């Protein structure tokens, strides 16, 4: 599980998630915005698989149709999306953002050990 967390954090860092992928008009997070920024779950969705129809749907509404491998169970991914979308890390910037996300991932993996 440790390597899985490290690999997920590499993807998150590579997608520069310190930038927001947010729709101000609808006050909601986006899997992708028009600038190409991705949300915490969106960074794990392959570009070839992403469609704008995914927007507005929670992770559990799109996960069955995804071929992109998710790093964690549906329970962990759904909870992680809620953590991110509810702005619990939005005030964090730079390294503080990544530390907060990794801490939450570890917390969620511990909460769902049989499914992580």
Topology, pairings included?
Elements: H1 2-14, E1 22-23, E2 28-29, H2 59-62, H3 74-85, H4 94-111
What does the main sheet amount to?
2 strands, antiparallel
Number of contiguous helices: 4
Q: What are the low-pLDDT stretches, counting only 5+ consecutive residues below 50?
A: none
Beta-strand proportion:
under 5%
Give the integer mean of the pLDDT values.
Answer: 85
Oligomer: single chain
- Helical coverage, percent range: 40-55%
- The chain-level structural class is mainly alpha
- Count of folded domains: 1
Using only C-alpha atoms, the radius of gyration works out to 13 Å
Question: What gap, in angstroms, lies between the N and C termini?
Answer: 8 Å
Count of DSSP strands: 2
H and E string: HEEHHH
Shape: globular
Report strand order across the widest sheet: 1-2
Short description:
The protein is mainly alpha-helical.
Descriptive overview:
The protein has one domain. It is built from 4 helices and 2 strands. It has helices at 2-14, 59-62, 74-85, 94-111; strands at residues 22-23, 28-29. The chain has a two-stranded antiparallel sheet with strand order 1-2. Strand 1 and strand 2 (28-29) form a beta hairpin. Helix 3 (74-85) runs antiparallel to helix 4. The model has no long low-confidence stretch (mean pLDDT 85).
Descriptors:
single chain; 116 residues; mainly alpha; two-stranded antiparallel sheet; 4 helices; 41% helix
